[in-house]
Amino acid sequence: MARLLSRQELEVEVEFYSFALQEADDNLVPTPFPEDLESDNFISLRERRVDIKSGGHTHTALLTAEVWSAAPDAAAGDDWEAEGEGEIESPTGELVICEMMGNSGNYIELERPGLWKFRIQCAGRETVYRLAQVDVPSGVERYLMQFWPTG
User: How many separate domains does the chain show?
Assistant: First the structure.
């Protein structure tokens, strides 16, 4: 049975509809964000990096990061508008949130170095798209990202 090991609540400054999570030691990331950015998919996987496409151009999103002992059930209860899954390798056991202007200083603490599976779900995309046309909204778009070890 999967156990929740940790939970972090973080703010993300989104610009140009995107942000990323990548290995905290950028010397270990062959193509650091925002290089080679794809903007068409909800998530795009790179070596030791995950690019995330937002619903709004410029705004502050909320990201909840959960670390689990094993694969958790998908979260229910929110009106998820986008979902994705993948794997990310973290040699340090930490991921950093990367914004267009660089490293945000916000880190996701994984339980150990290695290869991690993840699921990401997002709500508020349509609303933030409309609001970001005339303002810089905060907390409208919400992400839940769940991590668990492979194998």
Answer: 1
E-strand stretches of the chain:
4-14, 18-23, 43-46, 49-53, 59-68, 82-90, 94-99, 102-109, 114-123, 138-149
Run of H or E including 82: strand 82-90
CATH code, domain carrying 132? 2.60.34.30
Angle (CA) 3 1 96, round 5°: 35
Q: How far lies 67's CA from each of 6, 60, 109, 125, 147, in Å?
A: 5, 23, 8, 24, 5
- Domain residues for the domain of 46 are 4-149
74-124 tens-digit pLDDT: 888 779 999 999 999 999 999 999 999 878 889 999 989 999 999 999 999
Q: Mean pLDDT for the chain?
A: 95
How far is residue 43's CA from residue 38's CA, in Å, rounded to a whole number? 9
DSSP assignment of 83-102: EEEEEEEESSSEEEEEETTE
